[in-house]
Design goal:
Blueprint lengths: L1 E2 L3 H8 L3 E8 L3 E5 L9 E2 L2 E2 L3 E5 L3 E5 L3 E2 L3 E7 L6 H5 L4 E5 L8
Antiparallel strand pairs: 1-9, 2-3, 2-10, 3-7, 4-9, 5-8, 6-7, 6-9
């Protein structure tokens, strides 16, 4: 996952490692409530892209696995690196997703 350069993304990174049971909604996203609220910087995004990771309100983390138009407002957290197979991998069922920090690469 590539985190945005934002206060919300930095606060999310401080929560890692984190395992969430994420439910499906509208056959285009997975969501779960966080234990603690994150700082918000809400904006109208117009288009959700497959692989977007956003915050709805201050505590609901959302991973989108389809691209679509929206009138909802979100705080951007980041984007998954390789979202092409998300719909197939995630399916329409609830899933458990583990978020971890990347290990530093040695030179």
């Amino acid at each position: 996952m590539i985190l945005d350069d934002s206060e919300a993304a930095r606060a999310f990174a401080e929560m890692l490692p984190l395992t969430l049971n994420m439910a499906d909604l509208n056959s285009n996203e997975k969501y779960a409530d966080l234990q603690s609220p994150l700082p918000i910087s809400v904006s109208n995004v117009d288009t959700i892209n497959r692989g977007d990771v956003m915050l709805y309100g201050s505590k609901t983390l959302v991973i989108f696995y389809k691209t679509f138009q929206t009138s909802y407002s979100y705080t951007r957290i980041g984007r998954l690196r390789d979202p092409d197979e998300l719909a197939k991998v995630l399916g329409r069922r609830s899933v458990q997703i583990e978020f971890t920090r990347a290990m530093p690469q040695s030179l």
